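> call design_seq(struct)
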């Protein structure tokens, strides 16, 4: 059950920052728009994107983190909103160190002095989900101790439940909301943030990434002390490196920045196509540089809570698209989308090819060092969406990670030629996966299975037409059932429209009166009464 006080606070902040104008945009062609204050009150001076960012900050760290996650969905959001939400910073006051120590001792079932030789009571970092303390083990090893904030999961579950209810309602009444896939965005965020709360999962991810790059000159991943790690506490080797964003310090130490930039690109493609296990949160705060040998620098990665993986089909799809982009074969890009089912069969493939050509040709008028692969993927997803392509979450993570890596690489070396770095890698990967030798090896590997199936081939040929007819009949039957379900849903919506209408009228009326009462400095009882009426209306609107 969501506390009324919590809903009241969100309701008030939404009115305070005039988020009703954003709601009015979502309901642009719906009759419910005429019941919103935005239809009658003056437009605020600040843009909707700015006010949304400010409201999320006011609502607290969990909502700030949601805004950060939302900012990565540039395939769904208008650019103005994506750019504004990207400004959100995760600077959260630390929680009480005594609480952190009590949690560590409870989770690891031992006193702090028995666990660590020294423990820094001042946290190194504090974020919306956890904070980090420095410590030293009894053998002298420097470590960091990450502790999940108390009661943070309850707060997240409560907030997400409310966000889902609002999103489902908006998707039912707004075409724009449906196009933005609001419920899908909330569910993606829920999976991501609940995954970040499980430090055992982060530890497992860190260990696997460490194993993948064992002995590699590209990337170092700190050791995890699994015997001292639980769901709420993680103990990990404390690394010593220069933050990737400290470019001036890297230059001062005479670091080979060109090699470092090139290795960043190699690290990304190795993770995605060789290991199929990539660090999907590689922002500057999570990447450091080992400059013990400035001429041979390497990366250090921390915070492996968010990991991306691709299916073999997605790997092939992305790789072939990138190679086609290298070769300026825009027709191949269009064909790949059609053959893989990423755009519907009814879509105009020739029109899609023309749009892709128009999109990509201007890129090749720039120097190679200025061509952005991340921007290419972003534009590709955005354009394909106009042809009703559904972008999967793992590909959004991939695009976000590539944009981060590419941005860092260009910051280190403005003349970085991703073309020269990535093209040989991709061509070699395609050859190893789909070349003649790999095809022969795959055929030989499956030869025993093929021989077992060979006697069944005549029967399959004879019965194929009959099975296809049955399949066609089943499809028609399911289509009829779907039509019946749609009619039932329409009737259900008609039965609930009056209840929701009453709820909206109560929300709008209380919102207008509450805004007027606040500005006129009227009494607290009147403001509280209007707020309670608004909450009652909100419950009517969101209840199923």
């Amino acid at each position: 059950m969501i506390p009324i006080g919590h809903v009241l606070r969100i309701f008030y902040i939404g009115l305070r920052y005039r988020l009703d104008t954003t709601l009015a945009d979502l309901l642009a062609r719906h009759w419910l728009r005429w019941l919103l204050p935005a239809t009658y009150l003056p437009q605020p001076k600040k843009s909707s994107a700015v006010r949304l960012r400010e409201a999320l900050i006011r609502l607290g760290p969990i909502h700030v983190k949601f805004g950060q996650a939302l900012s990565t969905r540039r395939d769904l959001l208008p650019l103005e909103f994506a750019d504004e939400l990207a400004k959100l910073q995760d600077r959260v006051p630390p929680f009480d160190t005594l609480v952190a120590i009590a949690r560590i001792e409870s989770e690891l079932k031992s006193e702090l002095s028995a666990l660590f030789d020294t423990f820094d009571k001042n946290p190194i970092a504090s974020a919306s989900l956890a904070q980090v303390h420095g410590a030293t083990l009894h053998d002298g090893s420097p470590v960091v101790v990450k502790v999940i904030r108390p009661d943070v999961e309850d707060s997240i579950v409560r907030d997400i439940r409310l966000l889902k209810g609002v999103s489902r309602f908006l998707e039912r009444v707004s075409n724009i909301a449906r196009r933005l896939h609001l419920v899908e965005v909330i569910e993606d965020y829920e999976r991501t943030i609940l995954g970040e709360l499980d430090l055992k999962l982060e530890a497992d991810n860190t260990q696997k990434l460490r194993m993948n790059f064992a002995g590699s000159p590209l990337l170092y991943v700190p050791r995890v002390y699994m015997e001292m790690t639980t769901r709420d506490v993680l103990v990990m080797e404390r690394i010593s490196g220069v933050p990737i964003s400290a470019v001036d310090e890297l230059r001062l130490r005479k670091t080979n920045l060109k090699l470092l930039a090139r290795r960043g690109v190699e690290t990304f493609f190795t993770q995605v196509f060789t290991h199929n296990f990539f660090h999907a949160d590689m922002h500057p705060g999570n990447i450091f540089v080992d400059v013990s040998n400035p001429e041979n620098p390497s990366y250090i990665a921390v915070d492996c809570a968010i990991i991306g993986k691709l299916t073999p089909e997605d790997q092939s799809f992305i790789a072939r698209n990138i190679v086609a982009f290298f070769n300026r074969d825009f027709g191949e890009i269009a064909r790949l989308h059609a053959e893989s089912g990423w755009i519907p069969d009814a879509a105009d493939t020739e029109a899609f090819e023309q749009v892709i050509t128009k999109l990509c040709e201007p890129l090749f008028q720039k120097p190679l060092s200025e061509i952005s692969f991340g921007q290419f993927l972003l534009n590709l997803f955005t354009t394909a969406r106009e042809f009703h392509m559904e972008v999967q979450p793992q590909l959004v993570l991939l695009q976000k990670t590539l944009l981060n890596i590419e941005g860092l690489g260009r910051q280190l070396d403005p003349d970085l030629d991703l073309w020269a770095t990535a093209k040989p890698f991709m061509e070699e990967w395609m050859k190893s996966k789909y070349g003649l030798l790999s095809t022969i090896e795959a055929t030989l590997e499956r030869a025993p299975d093929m021989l077992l199936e060979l006697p069944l081939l005549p029967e399959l040929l004879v019965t194929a037409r009959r099975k296809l007819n049955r399949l066609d009949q089943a499809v028609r039957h399911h289509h009829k059932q779907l039509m019946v379900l749609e009619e039932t849903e329409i009737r259900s919506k008609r039965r609930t429209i009056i209840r929701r209408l009453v709820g909206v009228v109560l929300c709008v009326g209380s919102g207008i009166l509450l805004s007027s009462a606040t500005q006129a400095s009227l009494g607290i009882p009147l403001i509280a009464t209007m707020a309670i009426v608004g909450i009652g209306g909100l419950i009517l609107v969101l209840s199923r």
